[in-house]
Every structure is written in C-alpha cells, then in structure tokens.
Amino acid sequence: MHDLKKKPIGVFDSGYGGLTVLKEIVKQLPEYDYIYLGDNARAPYGTRSFETVYQYTLESVQQLFSMGCELVILACNTASAKALRTIQQKDLPLIAPDRRVLGVIRPTTEIVGNYTKTGHVGVLGTSGTIASDSYPIEIAKFYPQLKVVQEACPMWVPLVENNEFENEGADFFIQKNINSLLSKDKNIDTIILGCTHYPLLINKIKKYLPPNITLLSQGEIVAESLIDYLKRHVEIEQKSTKGGSVEFYTTDSPENFDKAALNFFGKAVKSKHVSF
Ligand code: DGL
Fold it and tell me: Which residues line ligand 1 (CB under 6 A)?
C-alpha cells in the first residue's frame, strides 16, 4: 500500500499521455516524490461531455488527495480545459482549501508569444479541448494581438493508445489534420501540441509540416512552470516530500499500463491498480 507519510506531487491524465509530462518534470525536479494516476479504464476523455470529464477528473483528483498529494497537476489538456476551473473555484474551497490543482494549458499559453514572429499560432488538440476554446481564450489574456486557429484531431489519441502511431495508417490522419490546420491560416509559424499524447507523433507531424514552423510540446514547458510555481508557493513546496520516488497507478490493467508506458515515459515502470 502507498506510504501515507509521503506527500508526493500528483500527476494525472486520462491515460498514458501525462507520462510525457511526468518524464520532463522528473528530469528537471528529480528530488520530489511523485504519484502518477492514469484513468485508463475510462480513457479517452477527448470525445466526452463537459460533465463527464469534470466528474472523472474530480474523482481522480480526490483519489490523489487521499494518497497524500498536496499538489496535483492535470497533465491532460482535455481535463485542464473542461474540469480545472470548476475544481479550482467550486470544489477545492469545500473539499481541500489548502491543496492545489494546476493544469497544462496556462503554462503553454503564457509563453507562446515568445515563439511566434508572424503572430499566427495553430493549436492541435482533442475534440473536447478544441471545442472548449480554452486555448484562444487563454492566449488572448496574455497576447491579445495573436491570431489563433485550431484543429481537432479526434483520431490521434486512439492511434497512440492503440500503439498504431508508427504505422502508415497514422500518416493519413496526421497529414489530413495538419493540412486542414495550415489551410485555415497560411501565416502560422508556431503550433501548440495541445494534447499530452501528441509528442509520440512528433516525427510524423514534422514530416508534414514546413520546416519553418516551431512545434511546442508541453513536457518541458510544464516542468519549467512547475519549478517557478514551487519557488513562488513555499507553503506547497515545503509540504512536498523529497524522497525521489515515482509511483504509478492505473484504473485499468497494470500489465497493459506497464507495456504501453515505456513508449511515453522512456523507461520501464511497474504500476499498481487502483479503483475508486
Ligand atoms: N492526453 C489528453 C490530453 O492532453 C487526451 C487524451 C484523451 O482523449 O483522453 O488532452
């Protein structure tokens, strides 16, 4: 059973995608304890309704709180887009006023203006993330002058989750969505990979993009933003224990999780099952 003396930083995703974020966080902040939770039994979230994503995300956050996490990062754009604000504003004050939940959209939108020269930005994400308009809304807060166009890529997460991301079938959907995004605005010079699964598709994405376009994937961005957050929030930083451990939990089969996780996390993991 999980050691309750630990106060790990919780990292949550609907499935495996958040492992691409955890990998960078652990690389940059190896001293802390971490718990990763993948809600694989109910993934993907990308095509689900607002209410469902909110409910699933809240349950997962509560699970991580019960395992001692004082800080939880939603390493999932869909959950960040659809559930984060309600959890922060409505639920946390009632269930855990001293704990914090952060997402991955804000750190990305904060820095996108440092990359674009043309002022034209593209966003690729799940149907849920794109329909929420979270990226254009958040980018406008920091950089109101930027033009943002978006493209929903509903097939990309299933390609990754089903281990088809290196096969030829993936090329069809990647080329289709990239072409569609670029046809909406010829001046795009920066594209946000607004889904934590997409770093696995990066080689194929690059194949269909003109070389002058900068691709922003979120692992490093979120890790750097966490470093900054912990400096500014000493009360959270001091509560987080530093044992250098990383534990993995999945709501589905640990055997399947461990097999797939290798691609996302870059090294072997040994997960445990959790249900709630
Ligand atoms: N990894 C999630 C994201 O960043 C999406 C996966 C899903 O559809 O569940 O949006």
Answer: 13-15, 17, 43-46, 76-78, 126, 129, 157, 195-197
